[in-house]
Amino acid sequence: MFYQEKREGYARVGKLNGKRTPLMIELGDELLKKIDFGKAPYSAKFLVDVSEDLLPKGEIFALTGIDRLDARQLFRAFEEVRGKVVYAVAAAKPVNVSLLIYFGADIVDNFLAIAKAKEGIFFTEDYEIPVEESEELCSCKFCEEKDLVGHNTEMVRREVKKCRFLIAKEELRNYVEAKVKHNPELTAALRIADFEGEKELFPRFKRSKCYFSNLESVNRFEVQYFLKRAFECYKPVTKTLLILPCTAKKPYLVSKTHRIIRSKVKVGVNEIIISSPLVVPREFELVYPALNYDTPVTGYWSDEEVSFVASWLEKFVKKGNFEKIVAHVEGGYRKVVERALKDFDVIYTAEGSIISESSLKKLSAVLEDESYNFFDQIFPSISRYQFDLEFDGDVFGKYPEIELYKCDEKVARIDLNYGKIDVYMFAAKRLLKEKKFFVKIGNFEPKGTIFAPGIIEADEKIRPNDTVVFYSDEIIGVGTALMSGKEMINKKKGAAVKVKRVEPLR
Ligand SMILES: [Zn+2]
User: Are domains 2-196 and 210-374 of this chain identical in fold?
Assistant: First the structure.
């Protein structure tokens, strides 16, 4: 009866008995009579008419007593029931419901909304205040009728609807990061999840923008994964390295500053771009989140930022055999380079503006051209990152809209929505041969979506949003994963792969 449509980390959207989840159920809802509350706390048992007519054992797990848990226990409770349909009982308030959903709640309720209303507490999006002070704060239809239960319920309902929308847009994380700031306990729970949580359900590529607005942003899965993975896959070759600052426009190379530098200076060496919190070798600038993020630019760098970026810059630089390092950076960026590369002789070439005539002259004078063309290294680099193998060939197109060909056959293109590679049959067959990102399906004709029951075998490394190759005895195709590889194997229901292209297997 539960059907998962799309996963994003611990959160997901789906359908339960035809209703969209995450779902808020209300006191009196028929569904409540079917749930086994087990050792429910007194408050829930008091409110709910528990019936003997239970759901199939184990499908819906009622997580009770949440309000008594501390930050770590809260996250652990969700970890323990991962994979089940999770109902967070008597726990939802407007301020915390997005975090509950981010942690994996499929169902919440309006019990606290009712209980608080009975105590004379009025919910706003973020705060709880005495109802007497609420006069000018809301004009919903419930407030017009002085129905506080109705108003509080409506506030939770709106948050739940917003979360459904945000999961579909792949934006929930940005929202939760902002929301938890209203409460240190919620902030703690998110931090603990980032450091201690299992991450196999998190996508590596997303179509939403990554906002680096606070301390938690650095701990996001996609940031940690990008730095670690780009470092693993980085293969610098030139003797000289050029370090440049990031730009607001992405990819960096289409920004005005990077374009001016390239028009005045011949850049034929490896480049690394530094940002906060990313360190991005030029070859990886089309990969999410490097392709699509925003970070507050003020010119002030905190000591934590400098240390974090410097530690990664040092690692990337040490991966090469650079004999000369040229840093065309200023301000906070220079601080990062100074801290990261204290054991190296670094030539600093920027004076004031990095695009001033004197800066560019200086850069031009010290930068030897080693005829390195990063353009040819984009597909090999990103395919190592994404598939653990290398696709190479001839690159065509206008940067960043580029495609890879081999013997006149289209191999791959850059998917600029997701910051990843999209593959065609030539590459799909290679992935299949090497048993990477494969999904074996039954002998049916896949259209639109492949569902979990149709899947026979899948690569366990697959994450949601990964490009995958699916096949049967008759066909081969390319699609986008909607769930993890393990879920594809273990789930009896739900949407597993969105079909992009199919052809007969020859
Ligand atoms: Zn209202």
Answer: no
